């Protein structure tokens, strides 16, 4: 009878230990690791969405402002550079690869801002329905990129905190050896300000002030 009880006791003990370890946060690190990777994937998705919009946007602008060759070339080259940076889930723990990717995307954000300013000089472009639709999609995508970067940073900070605080630091060093902190996006000037387009007519310059009349003698 005692021999039959031993397996049952071992099974019960295993359950108790598993529950106890769970309560001590042994599952916290892999759970937060997966959340961080999911947030990173969303960042990539939004950047890819923006990249897919650019060829049509450049072609539309070129049809009305072909003389803006320098800006159009800069956008095309920046997109190509950003596309050439290969990333995957491991990129978030590789400082050099992460910064290379972030820098390429921030550069593209900057030159897109220059492209958007061009429309002010070309009334026909400003009223083109295809351009208006692309501009609206780009603006929405830039907003989603900002949100995705923010959400990723927040998730990554929680994960990084788990790697260096008790009790999860114990599991990080023993059970999950080799876990590295996730890199964070830094708020560059280009990233903080998404490219925007104003379709309002530029304000007329203020009339110069008239000199005060000379006092009567």
Structure report:
The chain has a single domain (41-192), classed as LemA-like domain (de novo design (two linked rop proteins)). It is elongated, with a radius of gyration of 28 Å. Mean pLDDT is 84; it is low at 11-23 and 196-212. It is mostly helical. The chain has helices at 2-23, 28-64, 69-84, 95-118, 123-126, 129-164, 168-173, 189-192. It is a single-pass membrane protein. Keywords: Membrane, Transmembrane, Transmembrane helix. InterPro entries: LemA-like_dom_sf, MamQ_LemA.
Which runs of at least 5 residues are low in confidence (pLDDT < 50)?
11-23, 196-212
Sheet-strand content, in percent, reads: under 5%
User: What number of domains?
Assistant: 1
CATH architecture: Up-down Bundle
How many E strands?
0
Helix-strand category? mainly alpha
- Give the H and E element order: HHHHHHHH
InterPro entries: LemA-like_dom_sf, MamQ_LemA
Subcellular location: Membrane
Membrane topology: Single-pass membrane protein
Keywords: Membrane, Transmembrane, Transmembrane helix
Task: Provide a concise account of the structure shown.
With 217 residues, the chain is mainly alpha-helical. It has helices at 2-23, 28-64, 69-84, 95-118, 123-126, 129-164, 168-173, 189-192.
Give a quick set of tags describing it.
217 residues; MamQ_LemA; transmembrane helix; LemA-like_dom_sf; membrane; LemA family protein
Topology:
Elements (H helix, E strand, L loop, with lengths): L1 H22 L4 H37 L4 H16 L10 H24 L4 H4 L2 H36 L3 H6 L15 H4 L25
